[in-house]
Amino acid sequence: MMQEVDAPNCGRENDLVAFLYGELNDVEKESFESHMHTCDLCQLQTSEFSSIRQSVAAWRDESLGHIQVASPVNAGLTIERKTSALAALRAFFDLSPLWMKGAVSFAAILFCILTVLAAARLLPTSAPVATKNGSNQGYSQQEVNALVEKRVQEELHTRKSPEEPAPISPALALNQKTVRPGSRALSSRSYSLASDARNVKARRPLSKAEREQLAADLRLVSSSNERSVDLVDEE
Amino acid sequence: MEAATSDEQIVERALTGDAEAFGEIVQRWERRIFALTFGMLGREEDARDATQETFLAAFRNIRSFRGEAKVSSWLHRIAVNQCITRQRRAKVRKESGLEEEEEKHAASFSASLHYSPAFVVEGRERSAAVRRAVNSLPLELRQVIVMKEFEELTFREMADALDIPLSTVKSRLYTALKQLQMRLQQYES
Predict the structure, then answer these.
(1) Which of A150, A228, A234, B2 is 20–30 Å from B70 (CA)?
(2) Is residue B58 within 8 Å of residue B74, measured between CB atoms?
(3) How far apart are CA B147 and CA B36, in angstroms?
(4) 3-state secondary structure of A138
(5) Tens digit of each residue's pLDDT (9 = 90 or more) over B38-65
C-alpha cells in the first residue's frame, strides 16, 4: 500500500530516517525497534525506503563505479604532483620506444666517459707525495719545498766537501776580483741553488789541457806559451 | 604525532600565496563534489564540467572566503549553484530540441556489458527512472538525497554544510524519500 506524503504518521519520522541510515545509538535503536513492533506504518516505510535506497545506490554504482579510480577534475584543473627524478626517469623509459631507450643509454655512457676524461685533465697532478705517519694527511706545498731545499743543500754539501778546492793563493785571490763579468768563477757563493746543483753534477777532474786553458782564461799566466805552469795541482 | 591540517588552515595558506595549497583542497574534495554534481545533474559529463567549474569559481573567489563557514559548506554551495545554472541552461536547450540526443547518449553510458540484454534493459530502465525521479525533486530535497546517498555525509555534516538544524535534515530526508517513492511508482505504472 502506497503511503501519501501528507498522510498522518506516528510522529517518529526522524527516528525512522536515522534508523534507516544507521545513525541511531544503541539505546535509540532498541527503542525504535520496539516501536516498529507496534507501528505498521513505520514497518512499511522502512521496507519501502530501503528499496528506494537500493535503487538509488544501484544507479550511483552503475554510473560512478568506474569513476572511483579516475579523478574527475584532472582533465581541466591539473594538480601538479612532485615526483622524484628516479620515478620520472623510470616513467620516461617505460613510455619511450626501444630506439629512444638505446639512444639515451648511448648518450649517457658517452657523457660519463667525457666527464671522467675531463676530470682527469683538470685534476692537479701534484698530488701529495707522501703521508705523515701513515695518516691520510699529505704534506703541504711549503713542507715539500722546505724538504727539497734541505735535501739539495745536504747533497751539495756532501759533494763539495771532498772536492773542496785547495786554499787559493793570495795571487789567485787577488786575480779573482778581476774576473770578467760573464766568465766562470771558481768559488762564487752567490750561485743559486739550482745552478749549484747543475755545477755539482758537471764537476769532474780537469785534464791538463783544460787546466791550462782555465789558467789562461783567468790570466794566471802571462802568455799562452808558459805551458809548464800548474796553478791547481790537485793530483 | 602531527595533527591533520584543517581545510581552513589550507585556505589560509592559499591566501598567503602558497600555490600548492589550493591543490590540496581540490584533492580533498573533488570526489565528494563530483558525487554531489553527479547526483544533482545525473550525467557524468555534466558532473565533470560542474566539478571543474566549482573549483575554478572557488579559486577565483577564494579571497571572499571569510572563514565564518566551513570550507566544505562553501564548496557545497558553489557546486549547488553551478548545478542550478547548468540545469537552467539544459532546460533552454531541451526546449530548443538539443536535449533528446544527449538523453540517448546518457542512457547508453550507464549500460553495463556484463549482464544479459534483458537484465541490462531492466537495470537501465530502473536507473533512468531513479535519475528522473531524483532530478524532479525540489532543490532542497534533492540536495539532502545527494548528500546522503552520493557524498555519504552524516546528518551532522549535512547540517553543518547546509547550515540547518539536525532535525531539519532528517525531516527533509524523510520527505525526499517519500516523494521519490511516489514518483517511482508513477513511472512504473
Answers:
(1) B2
(2) yes
(3) 6
(4) strand
(5) 888 888 888 889 999 999 998 888 888 7
**What is the 8-class DSSP label of residue A78?**
-
Residue B125 pLDDT exceeds 50: yes
Q: How would residue A186 be classed by pLDDT, with cut points 50, 70 and 90?
A: very low
The residue among B43, B181, B187 with the most chain A CBs within 10 A of its CB, best to mutate, is B181
Note whether B126 contacts A: Cβ–Cβ < 8 A: yes
What CA–CA distance (Å, rounded) separates A31 from A13? 14
Q: Which residues share a beta bridge with A131? A: A138
Of A3, A23, A57, the CB nearest to B154: A23
Give the Cα-Cα-Cα angle B170, B171, B174 (nearest 5 degrees). Answer: 85
Cell of A35: 516501536
Assess B32–A contact: CB distance below 8 Å, yes or no: no
How many residues can be counted in chain B?
A: 189
- List helix spans (H) across chain B: 7-15, 21-41, 44-60, 71-95, 99-109, 117-135, 139-149, 155-162, 166-188
Give, to the nearest 10 degrees, the angle between helix B139-149 and helix B71-95: 120
| Whether A155 contacts A199, CB under 8 Å | no
Q: For residue A12, what is the DSSP state? A: -
- pTM of the predicted protein model: 0.49
Q: Does the beta-carbon distance from B149 to A49 stay under 8 Å?
A: no
Q: Give the distance from CA A147 to its chain's centroid.
A: 33
Burial A83-106 (b: 16+ CB within 10 A, else e): eeeeeeeeeeeeeeeeeeeeeeee
Helix, strand, coil percentages for chain A (3-state, nearest 5): 55, 0, 45
- Contact predicate B123/B112, CB 8 Å: yes
CA A231/CA A169 separation, integer angstroms:
9
Averaged pLDDT, A74-87 = 46
Q: List Cβ neighbours of B18 (8 Å cut-off, separation of 6 or more).
A: none
Is the CB of residue A40 less than 8 Å away from at least one CB of chain B? no
The CA-based angle A231-A177-A234, given to 5 degrees, is 20
- A–B: how many Cβ contacts below 8 A? 110
